[in-house]
Design a protein that fits this description.
alpha/beta; 8-stranded mixed β-sheet; binds adenosine-5'-triphosphate; ATP-binding
């Protein structure tokens, strides 16, 4: 499809450890359209940061396996050599704001210089031109221009996070991946950063992948939601569908576990623990905790396409659950 910006098929990232391979990302497929915000939601340890690193090719030393096909626009980026990927894609077309990166700013370099740095490094822009562009991005993310001459320790946490965002945006990437961008901030600052992201999406048409464990944060920006569980995506659909009427039993339980104002029903915890990624079960990875499991769940389910509630055209609602097997015995059909 022409308006598809990112297409990811069968992405995998496994780590080598003494106990064996940790299958942190295990056969993940999804796409992102131009101008769209996809939220990747999942509890701690399910592989969200690993997914971001696999997309950005930020691979650790103890890599056991990195696989899958990824294209960005018309470019099959997974086929590029590491050198071409670094030169032509990483940070310039696809940028990542890493978890806690606001604490990783260089303490002895002025913030303006740091924001301008990607342009000087990647595009070889002269200093003055790069600083002019950095000033534009400062305004975009709501940083006062006189902060260009400050050092990171002279900025609050929220302002540092805006600076990190400015650094990701300065080379005008088509896609920005944000890994828990607001989880270290207080709620008012979180809301201010989410507003900046919404404005960027509206004004620049930037596509986002927002990675978070926080359902409330995710609902702010999401056009679509993909829910991750134990290294796999279990459901991907429009945000309206996910927050209103999710299909996968895990999605439904997750939504019931979120505390809400004005609701009598108390939030319910999901019993049990996710499986180890060292030796995940061969069948459905959620089965051990699933109140709806049946015999079929001993086999690994594929992602079934659901045709309901997504409007005309190709369905983009995928659910990895045997209950949705067409003509299957699971009941939801
Ligand atoms: N370099 C590594 N070597 C071995 N195991 C790793 C490595 N990095 C991550 N893991 C493991 O991979 C799994 C997924 O980790 P990851 O950080 O991607 O999850 P996450 O969903 O982002 O969690 P969180 O929200 O807590 O950061 C975890 O079990 C983690 O312990």
């Amino acid at each position: 499809m022409a308006d598809t910006l990112l297409k990811v098929e069968d992405l995998a990232l496994h780590y080598r450890t003494r106990g064996g391979a940790v299958r942190a990302v295990d056969g993940v497929s999804f796409d992102v359209k131009r101008g769209e915000a996809l939220v990747i939601l999942g509890e701690s340890g399910c592989g969200k940061s690993s997914l971001a690193r696999a997309l950005m090719r930020l691979l650790p030393r103890n890599l056991a396996h990195h696989g899958g096909r990824v294209s960005l626009g018309d470019t099959p980026i997974s086929e590029l050599s590491d050198e071409r990927f670094r030169r032509e894609v990483q940070w310039s077309r696809m940028a990542l704001v890493m978890q806690a990166s606001m604490n990783a700013l260089n303490p002895v370099v002025k913030v303006g210089e740091q924001v301008a740095e990607p342009l000087r490094e990647l595009k070889r822009w002269p200093r003055r031109r790069a600083l002019e562009r950095a000033a534009e991005v400062f305004q975009r993310v709501g940083l006062p221009l006189d902060f260009m001459a400050r050092y990171p320790f002279e900025l609050s946490g929220g302002m540092r996070q805006r600076a990190v965002l400015a650094m990701a945006l300065v080379a005008e990437p088509e896609l920005v991946i944000l890994d828990e961008p607001t989880s270290a901030l207080d709620v008012l600052t979180q809301a201010a950063i989410m507003n900046v992201l919404k404005e960027l999406k509206r004004d620049l048409g930037t596509s986002f992948i927002l990675i978070t464990h926080d359902v409330a944060t995710s609902s702010e920006l999401a056009d679509r939601v993909a829910l991750m569980y134990a290294g796999e995506l279990v459901e991907a659909c429009s945000a309206a569908r996910f927050f209103g009427e999710p299909a996968h039993p895990y999605s439904r339980l997750l939504m019931k576990s979120v505390p809400r104002l004005h609701e009598r029903e108390r939030p319910r915890a999901i019993l049990g623990q996710p499986p180890s990624l060292l030796d995940p079960p061969t069948g459905c990875r959620f089965a051990a905790r699933c109140p709806e499991r049946f015999a079929r769940c001993g086999e690994s389910p594929p992602a079934f396409a659901l045709g309901i509630g997504e409007g005309a055209g190709e369905s983009r609602h995928r659910v990895r659950c045997w209950r949705y097997e067409p003509n299957g015995g699971g009941g939801h059909g």
